[in-house]
Design brief:
The protein is elongated and about 115 Å long. The chain has 19 helices and 14 strands. It is of the alpha/beta class. It comes from Algoriphagus limi. InterPro entries: DNA_mismatch_repair_MutS_C, MutS, P-loop_NTPase. This is DNA mismatch repair protein.
């Protein structure tokens, strides 16, 4: 069970049951505290008037009213935060349903990460509408979002993915942690309020000025003394203005530094998110070495916990970032409070700034891990996978993660060096391209440290390369055929440089005439003889299937269709051998094209 953490000495409720009823109850409490705050504010004003107009002892009920007012504000803010947590829990539930149904249109598409020149990301639906990014992404900060995109696009390192899989699997078992972590991010993190240059600035020491501490106490005690004497009529009231003027040069000495601190310290919503995330992570116990190592990076070797440090920073930032508040300005002018705030801030930054400089980056990595673990838990794929030293790929019951698991058709498939090149033929719409993308996107999943959408997967150590979506570029005067040739050239260059590739080429050389396409395809197939690879080439040119008897490393596989009078049926199952029949003629008829009988 997740250890609870506190906010204003209160515990957030992260249980997702009966959210509407619980929110209604809290809204009533919020209304009560709003009325209490108003009543206490009026009482403070009344006591202040009585203090100045009647007697000194009214300061005591005024002080009690101020304390009660602050307490009421804290309770009111906590209840509002709890409502935000309930809203985030509700949003999490809604998004889970959308992902289960593969209705991803409203989710962040990550379309800015699309890259036509990338070895595989543009062909495998990693980004954009109805993409893997939408299915996996549960991050909140831009840093974590960019990190996830980078990991999705990273070239295969399946041994590292296998190590990471242990960490993701352990995290996926911690349901309370995952739900609480995501709810906090949705409730409080606001990227627009995130400040920049945290790490570099936190690593810079602040020049300590011990005399400012002395001047700060002089200002505080002098302000109290001057105000008290003036109140008792023992001091001319004109000296109050002189006292304020006396403090202006000293306040000017720290104005620039405090303004910079206010600009650089993250907003209170961001600090609140970091603080609560740290409470959660500090309370957990992990067995996996990757999780323990990254948990240790959040901890300090000596001193208070990192969450306590952020709590202190949060209190300091409340003063620093509200220094231009109309209520604070007269207080500062009279008691020189900026001097004490600056000294406390400088001491805190010099003691702990370097220790927590990397905190946003570390928490971004935890966002990534949590995001992957939520995906792992929600999808609950129980298949196993292993890394082989051989150049091979074997899958049992593999299917595409962007299809609804209830309706997706699973396939068994294997390829090794004895038949390292697969020629894939099949009827239109029979599933050739989807199958190739199924293999590629599952390789991306295991590279992330996630379970494949398969009963079992064994794969060797190789890199992934695809050529599927090759489009023209009018701005660069590039035709789709030339774009495909450029992709193929990129693959050949990599192979000739000694890279071990698993490549997927869809509808090879489709931009040219049949004769040239067949000749070019055969030439490429023969050219690859001495290279170390696994590959699939899909084509409609059934003539190429005859090469199986001439080229020892080529194997034929296909997808079939059943043609009826008014329909075409597909089973989407891969089969050995070339496709026995095609359906383009029938599809055109069904779309309204009428063929005249030849005389």
């Amino acid at each position: 069970m997740l250890s609870p953490y506190l906010n204003m000495n209160r515990i957030f409720d992260f249980h997702p049951e009966d959210l509407l009823e619980k929110e209604k109850a809290i809204q009533k409490k919020i209304g009560g505290f709003s009325l209490l705050r108003l009543a206490l504010f009026v009482a403070i004003g009344a006591f202040a008037v009585l203090f100045f107009s009647d007697a000194f002892y009214w300061i005591f009920p005024a002080g009690l009213a101020v304390w009660s007012f602050i307490w009421a504000i804290q309770q009111h803010n906590f209840l509002k935060d709890q409502v935000r947590v309930y809203h985030s829990l509700s949003k999490i539930q809604q998004e889970r349903v959308l992902r289960e149904r593969r209705n991803l249109k409203s989710l962040d598409s990550g379309s800015e990460f699309l890259d036509k020149d990338h070895p595989f990301s543009n062909d495998l639906d990693l980004f954009g509408e109805h993409s893997l990014f939408q299915l996996v992404n549960h991050t909140h900060s831009n840093s974590a979002r960019n990190l996830l995109a980078s990991r999705l696009k990273s070239q295969l390192d399946v041994k590292n993915g296998f190590r990471l899989h242990g960490a993701v699997s352990e995290l996926a078992l911690k349901e309370d942690l995952l739900r609480s972590f995501e709810a906090i991010g949705k409730a409080f993190f606001n990227e627009k309020e995130q400040k920049i240059d945290w790490s570099d600035w936190m690593n810079q020491s602040v020049r300590m000025k011990p005399y400012l501490l002395v001047l700060g106490w002089v200002g505080l005690l002098g302000g109290l003394t001057t105000g008290t004497l003036a109140y008792l009529g023992l001091f001319p009231s004109q000296f109050l203005g002189i006292w304020i003027l006396l403090g202006l040069p000293f306040l000017g000495m720290v104005f620039k530094e405090l303004k910079e601190a206010g600009d650089r310290i993250p907003s209170q919503t961001v600090l609140k998110t970091y603080k609560h995330w740290l409470f959660l992570l500090e309370a957990e116990k992990f067995d996996n070495s990757i999780l323990r190592d990254h948990q240790d990076k959040l901890m300090l070797p000596e001193g208070p916990s990192t969450s306590k440090l952020l709590e202190e920073l949060d209190r300091l930032s409340l003063w620093i970032q509200n220094r231009m508040n109309l209520l604070y300005i007269p207080l500062n002018l009279f008691f020189w409070t900026d001097l004490l705030i600056y000294y406390r801030w400088a001491k805190w930054k010099n003691n702990w700034g370097k220790e927590i400089a990397s905190l946003p980056d570390e928490l971004a990595y935890w966002e990534l891990l949590i995001s992957l673990a939520i995906f792992e838990r929600e999808e609950a794929q129980l298949g196993s996978w292993e890394v082989s030293d051989k150049m091979e790929f074997e899958a049992k019951g593999i299917f595409h993660p962007l299809l609804e698991p209830k309706t997706a058709v699973a396939n068994d498939f294997s390829v090794d060096q004895s038949g390292k090149l697969i020629l894939l033929t099949g009827a239109n719409m029979s599933g050739k391209t989807t199958f190739m993308r199924t293999l590629g996107i599952n390789l991306v999943l295991v590279n992330l440290g996630l379970s494949p959408f398969a009963k079992f997967l064994r794969l060797g150590v190789f890199k992934l390369y695809t050529s599927m979506r090759n489009s023209d570029n009018l701005g660069q005067s590039i035709s789709s055929f030339y774009a495909e040739l450029s992709r193929i050239k990129g693959m050949i260059d990599r192979l000739e440089n000694g890279e071990r590739l698993f490549f997927l080429l869809d509808e090879i050389l489709k931009g040219t005439n049949t004769e040239d396409r067949i000749a070019g395809s055969e030439a490429l197939i023969r050219q690859l003889a001495m290279r170390e690879f696994l590959g699939i080439i899909s084509t409609h040119d059934i003539e190429l299937s005859r090469l199986e008897s001439k080229i020892p490393y080529l194997r034929n596989f296909s997808f079939h269709s059943q043609i009826h009078e008014n329909t075409i049926d597909f089973d989407y199952l891969i089969k050995p051998g070339p496709c026995p029949s095609f359906n383009a003629h029938k599809l055109m008829e069904l779309m309204g094209i009428r063929f005249e009988e030849k005389s």
